[in-house]
Amino acid sequence: MFSLPTLLTISIENNFHGFFLHYQPQLCPDSGRLYGAEALARWSCAGYGNVAPDVFIPMLEETGRIVEFEKWVFREAASQCKRWAALRPDFRMSVNLSCRHLEQADLGRYAQDELKRLGLAPSNMMFELTESWPLLPGAPCQSGKAAAGRKEAAAGGAVVSSLKETGIRLAMDDFGSGYSSLLSLQKFPFDLVKIDREFVKGTARGGAQAAFVPSLTRLCHSVGCQVCLEGVETAEEYEAVRRLGIEVMQGYYFGRPVPAEEFERLYL
């Protein structure tokens, strides 16, 4: 049997054979209306079965194939979004970007060309940028050298700005979990902030931890960002946060990631 890294390379060179996307719903808590979906990659590998993302994503990063992979995810997700936007024009599809993509100066042009090819409005797509990226301001740079870190952050900021100019929406993922939350909100033109799921845990029990979600929500609103609360898993958690003015929620309480056909049947 081939090793997993070898099979990953074979998959990539065969148009990502064995990879597919699942979609997790994002809903507006005040109305119950569907806001959009997050596209999440899955890999079924012969001899190994379903390989978890926290296994194959680091492998893609180590082999330098992560940018190629994320372009494939973007194409697949955008193509699916085109179909669902025809059913619901305000539908939004979110895809994740790794820090390596901030090193690609042509990312904005690539995304723009792909959307033009599909005939899909940029506003229907959203890129999720992890708040703890090394290239975001205030985070520790990979090289450990301050000057290099500033140069990388400036280059990453230029790429983010170019994405914003295309009309694609931008979200900060895992807000509050990393190094540079406040600086990132100040310096980057985010449309949506996704509050890390760790802040949701314990909200139903009250106490000090319950104060974080409303405080973070007010902070995000004060700088003009909408808020998505991730990781809402129980009815108790939902009841504890549903009156906080949060625009979007996501989590197992609303629905797990499912194949496109099931998503369409359940939510569209």
UniProtKB/TrEMBL annotation:
Domain of life: Bacteria
Ranges for domain EAL: 1-268
MF annotations from Gene Ontology: cyclic-guanylate-specific phosphodiesterase activity
Pfam families with a match to the protein in the record: EAL
The protein, known as: EAL domain-containing protein
Cross-referenced InterPro entries: Cyclic-di-GMP_PDE-like (IPR050706), EAL_dom (IPR001633), EAL_sf (IPR035919)
